[in-house]
Amino acid sequence: MPKSVEKEMEKLRQEIRYHEHRYYVLDDPEISDAEFDRLMRRLQDREREHPELVTPDSPTQRVGGKPAGAFPKFHHSTPMMSLDNTYSVEELTDFDRRVRELGGRDKVDYVAELKLDGLSMALTYRNGALERGVTRGDGSKGEDVTPNVKTIRSVPLRIDPKKLALLGDQADQFEVRGEVIMTRKAFERANAQREAAGEPRFANPRNSAAGSIRQLDSRIVADRGLDMYLYYLQAPGGAELFPEHSKVLEALSKLGFKVNPHWRYCRSFDEVLEYIRAWEEKREKLEYEIDGIVIKVNNTRLWEELGTTAKSPRWAVAFKYPARQATTVVRDIRAQVGRTGTLTPVADLEPVDVGGVTVSHATLHNMDEIARLEIKIGDTILIQRAGEVIPQVVKVTKHASGGRAFVMPKKCPVCAGDVHRAEGEVAYRCVNVSCPAKLKESLLHFAGRRAMNIDGLGEALVEQLVDKGLVKDLADLYSLTQEQLENLERMGEKSAQNLLGEIAASKKNDLARLLFALGIRFVGERTAEFLAGHFGSMEKLESASEEELLEVEEIGPRIAESIAEFFREKRNRLLLEKLKKAGLQFEGTKSRKSEGKLAGKQFVLTGTLAHYSRDEVKRLIEDAGGRVIGSVSKKTDYVVVGAEPGSKLDKAKALGVKTVDEAGLLKLVS
Ligand code: IVH
Same structural domain for residues 96 and 127? Predict the structure, then answer.
């Protein structure tokens, strides 16, 4: 191995670490994203060429491959304690008095910090490399979620060796603790994704952060935008190294950790009160939520003297801001259509002042929440702002007599398209792909690499095309002109030409891609392939009944219903006509063979065969001209039964459909 390659790789890693720190910790990048990506790609290339030189602390190793089965439990070196809460200046003054009495001094200096609303986590480092990340758990043992912690880009995987000296004897092995949080923006994004996937929303960023860090697949965690702030250094040898907490925070920063920049050294208790007052309003503007302030005695030697109670230290306390609540009347409840087409019930309120902000709307999230609150139009309700952008409804305080219940509209309030609720989901959605509320999302999905693959049609462009009224549905893309494109921001002659080329080329995509690109709910790439293979043309698919759809492999009632719903919507059918006129591929190749021993025969598979995988069985049948479909009906010719068959066998028996085992099938195809 040439030494120079190894050196180059280490140099790249150091450079990347430096820029990660500038970007994710200091929020002050020196290079562009593209330059950063180039460095990363170069390192990835080298590592691919020399896999033996990949180190676990390499910046390329943040996202692990296989999802974990479960997280191992791990005992904390010392318990992770929680804090006592105080809710008023009086209670806090008591804390200061106790500290002074127990510590035997007249005056104590403090450090005040934001109380980040996330989940606490302990990180251990050995020889400068991140060894383990463990959740708080019950305080004495938590879960080892190391692969997921590694996805947090602000958490250093390796500490600069030159900085380690700061830790004296502890340099070889040390433990730091802090809070994993999710920003409000990342929280909204995570919820939008969950809604799009038909999963329930997270109630707040803390739950969302906690749910994410316990995700078994680290690739999903990497996407969630978690962050971590450190505020504690576990000092096995006592407070010799850092006799002041403010020095600990400074040292953590120097070591490369992200430390929340808003901490303040307070010479006196009065300064603590000032800090608390100042953040009462300012906290609204933070990008993440806090649920109070933490006050810590600055002198860490005094920490040892003060000691702890059973569950919390006597040298620190939390101050919780009072929730800002108010009562008001619900004037109306209406459905608001979001970017993904979800209809969210929103309450229009009698405007009311809640802690200095006039509130006139509150989200009710979904119909389940409306049922839980038993809320009706005309009711008097208690609302609260806990830092969220949109205020929450806490409860109904008085039901109006004859209050009107909210009914989810059957037609979209934005485009009058059909509204559909899939079985087992809480969300109602507008089915019209071209609904103005969701057109931007539809376009981005349509242009995506795995859909129509229109390179260059990104978010900024979609925004302009829709906002300027140039594109009102997906098909309008195909009538855009050079002149129209050139007039857009950041579009030159050349890039407009390129984009038109891309759009024209996308017409050649096959039927399966087009089906996927339409964004029919539950129709992913695989389902789209099955549909295209089974029906062979858009027209046939369009006129298929739900029963016929159920004959397609892997299509169950939920997907069949969603597809039927899509084609029932007039606006979608009009869109398809336009797309056809534009010259897109509406015909595909039918996978079904019209010749062979099993030509025209329908098979359904259930259970596991001893010698063949599902895909292999399918190929056997298809090569002989037969067809494998998803569910048993009277039209099914054979049900192939393996070990541990499911309900399909019962259905076959009930309908009198022939069944064969593996040997029987082989005879049929041979
Ligand atoms: S210090 C031994 N500092 O609040 C006490 N905690 O309610 C160590 N928290 O479990 C905690 N921000 O998860 C500390 N700046 C901060 C904090 C903070 C948030 C959390 C932490 C703790 C909980 C107690």
Answer: yes
Output the residue whose Cα is nearest ligand 1's atom 13: 120
223 and 280 together in one domain: yes
Q: Is the per-residue pLDDT at 594 higher than 70?
A: no
What are the percentages of helix, strand and coil residues in the chain, rounded to 5? 40, 20, 40
Residues 254 and 389 in one domain: no
Q: Which residue has the higher pLDDT, 230 or 203?
A: 230
Task: Return mean pLDDT, the chain.
Answer: 91
DSSP 584-627: ---B------S-STTTT-EEEEESB-SS--HHHHHHHHHHTT-E
Domain with residue 626: its CATH number is: 3.40.50.10190
Verify that 383 and 522 share a domain, yes or no.
no
Q: Does the residue 640 lie in any domain?
A: yes
pLDDT tens-place string over residues 93-121: 999 999 999 999 999 999 999 999 999 99
Distance CA 155, CA 259 (A): 11
Distance (angstroms) between ligand 1 centre and the Cα of 177 equals 9
Q: How many residues does the chain have?
A: 670
Task: Say how many Å lie between the first and final Cα of the chain, rounded.
Answer: 54
Give a yes or no: residue 407 inside a domain. Answer: no
* Distance (Å, whole) CA 121 – CA 80: 9
* Same-domain status, 121 and 262: yes
Q: Which of 194-203, 471-480, 519-528, 611-620 has the lowest mean pLDDT?
A: 194-203
351 and 453 in a single domain? The answer is: no
391 and 461 both lie in a single domain: no
CATH number (domain holding residue 511)? 1.10.150.20
Burial class (CB in 10 A: 0-12, 13-18, 19+), 416: middle
586 within some domain: no
Output the residue whose Cα is nearest ligand 1's atom 21.
Answer: 120
- CA angle, 82 as apex, 316 and 216 as ends, to 5°? 140
Kindly report the CATH number assigned to the domain that includes residue 163. 3.30.470.30
Identify the domain containing residue 562 by its residue range: 439-581
pTM of the model: 0.65
Phi-psi sector, 137: left (phi>0), alpha (psi -120 to 50), beta: left
Q: What is the pLDDT of residue 238?
A: 75
Site residues for ligand 1, CB cut-off 6 Å? 81-83, 113, 115-116, 120, 179, 231-232, 294, 313, 316, 318
| Structural domain count of the chain | 5
Query: Which residue has the least CA distance to atom 17 on ligand 1?
Result: 115
The runs of H, that is alpha helices, within 360-428 are 367-373
Q: Cite the active site residues.
A: 115
In a domain, 404, yes or no: no
Residue 331 predicted with pLDDT over 90: yes
On whether both 210 and 168 belong to a single domain, the answer is yes
On the question of pLDDT at 221 being above 70, the answer is yes
Three-class DSSP category at 116? strand
Confidence of residue 338 (pLDDT cuts 50, 70, 90): confident
Instruction: For residue 27, report the distance from its CA to the centre of ligand 1, in Å.
Output: 23
